[in-house]
Amino acid sequence: MNPQPETSVLFSRQEIEATVNRLASELNRDYHRKHPILIGVLKGSFMFMADLIRLLDFPVEVEFIRLSSYGGGKESVGKIKVVHGLRTPIKGRDVLVIEDIVDTGRTINFLLEYLRRKRPASVKLCALTDKPSRRQIPVTIDYLGLTVPNEFLVGYGLDWDEKFRNLPDMCVLEGEE
Ligand code: PRP
Question: What's the CA-to-centroid distance between 44 and ligand 1, angstroms?
């Protein structure tokens, strides 16, 4: 079996919790009279989504979508595809997309176009982390948690080769970029 690379903590579980609390407060302020559909982008957003929605004090519906942009490794393999699409209509609805990280921006750019073609009333983006140093396509993040450096990050839902998603802290994978 291959040895596991080392990890070091970038954002502790306490820092993540404080960030999720702040984002939930912002959403509670802006959506308190609304009934949005939250769309989590699998797989990376599952932990963030689970923590975030427990703090929301307005009615929500939860959906997931799965896109493929990376292969088994860590680099983009080109064309983005919908692996698991939406199973519910969003026409006329307020939609809030929940992402774990915006990196090049290619995934979220594709997703926002996919969603807007379905004519929702509004589409906003809530991202736990943003890595602007890697951006290829401009992205407006309406609710942003943390800006992160150009390091390979794992934990709190983020993976390396499908590993490390379960780490409760967000960590840097040593020796990777
Ligand atoms: C990650 C992350 C975002 C996307 C961001 O997903 O969850 O969806 O990459 O990268 P980009 O801005 O460069 O497009 P990934 O494709 O690794 O799948 P996963 O969520 O299943 O880990």
Answer: 7
